[in-house]
């Protein structure tokens, strides 16, 4: 199982990155193989053909499990993450990738954002989204019992999906 964390926070080395790593580790039992801090891709995200962006897209596509992590900005995921997700082909760009939406925010008002806003775009890209999204408070995510409860509940599902011959039988939203 190859595990990647994609972080769409405009601030490098953010709490969002830390939360994404932690969730990936708790879901899979090991540290992620790759952490893509999308802000490091810089202006290459503004068009198509950038080598670093293409390499990052390939890394995600070759992963078994990808935690897509974003802070909540203006009640949704960041434009930075959207720029990265725009690099993937619709319908097939995340084929055979178990996509896990994770969002952090300052308070509980946007707790549904991962499922209502991030999960649909991952679905449109062909990701396997059998897990619900996870929303954590950015100041307390590491101590939040919801993180452990989520990982305990969904780790067996991740293991089953990544062991299956074809994960595309479980698209997002189904």
Task: Give a concise summary.
With 174 residues, the chain is an alpha/beta fold. It has five helices and five strands.
Characterization of the model:
Helices cover 36% and strands 16% of the residues. It has 174 residues and is α/β, with parallel strands linked by helices. The protein has one domain (3-167): Flavodoxin domain (Rossmann fold, 3-Layer(aba) Sandwich). A five-stranded parallel β-sheet has the order 2-1-3-4-5, sandwiched between helices. Strand 4, helix 4 (113-124) and strand 5 (134-137) form a beta-alpha-beta unit. Helix 1 (15-28) crosses helix 5. The longest helix is centred in the C-terminal third of the chain and has 19 residues, at 145-163. The two termini are 23 Å apart.
What characterizes the major β-sheet?
5 strands, parallel
Strand content: 15-25%
Q: What string, H for helix and E for strand, traces the elements in order?
A: EHEHEHEHEH
Number of helices: 5
| CATH C-level category | Alpha Beta
| Alpha-beta content class | alpha/beta
- Number of structural domains: 1
The CATH architecture term is 3-Layer(aba) Sandwich
Task: Give the overall shape.
Answer: globular
Assign a percent range to the helix content.
25-40%
- Write out the CATH superfamily name: Flavodoxin domain
Query: How many beta-strand segments?
Result: 5
- Per the CATH scheme, the topology name is Rossmann fold
Q: Uncertain runs with pLDDT below 50, 5 residues or more? A: 167-174
Could you give the order of strands across the largest sheet?
Answer: 2-1-3-4-5
Question: What is the residue-averaged pLDDT?
Answer: 93
Distance between the amino and carboxyl termini = 23 Å
Task: Describe the oligomeric state of these chains in a short phrase.
Answer: single chain
Backbone CA Rg: 14 Å
């Amino acid at each position: 199982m190859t595990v990647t964390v994609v972080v769409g926070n405009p601030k490098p080395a953010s709490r969002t990155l830390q939360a994404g790593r932690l969730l990936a580790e708790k879901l899979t039992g090991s540290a992620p193989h790759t952490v893509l801090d999308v802000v490091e891709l810089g202006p290459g995200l503004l068009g198509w053909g950038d080598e670093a962006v293409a390499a990052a897209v390939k890394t995600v596509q070759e992963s078994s499990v990808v935690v897509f992590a974003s802070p909540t900005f203006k009640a949704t995921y960041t434009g930075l993450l959207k720029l990265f997700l725009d690099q993937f082909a619709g319908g097939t760009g995340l084929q055979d990738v178990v996509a896990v939406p994770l969002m952090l925010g300052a308070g509980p008002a946007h707790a549904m954002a991962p499922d209502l806003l991030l999960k649909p775009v991952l679905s449109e890209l062909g990701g396997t989204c059998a897990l619900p999204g996870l929303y954590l408070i950015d100041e307390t995510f590491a101590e939040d019992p919801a993180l452990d409860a989520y990982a305990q509940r969904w780790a067996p599902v991740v293991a089953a999906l990544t062991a299956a011959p074809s994960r595309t039988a479980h698209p997002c939203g189904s």
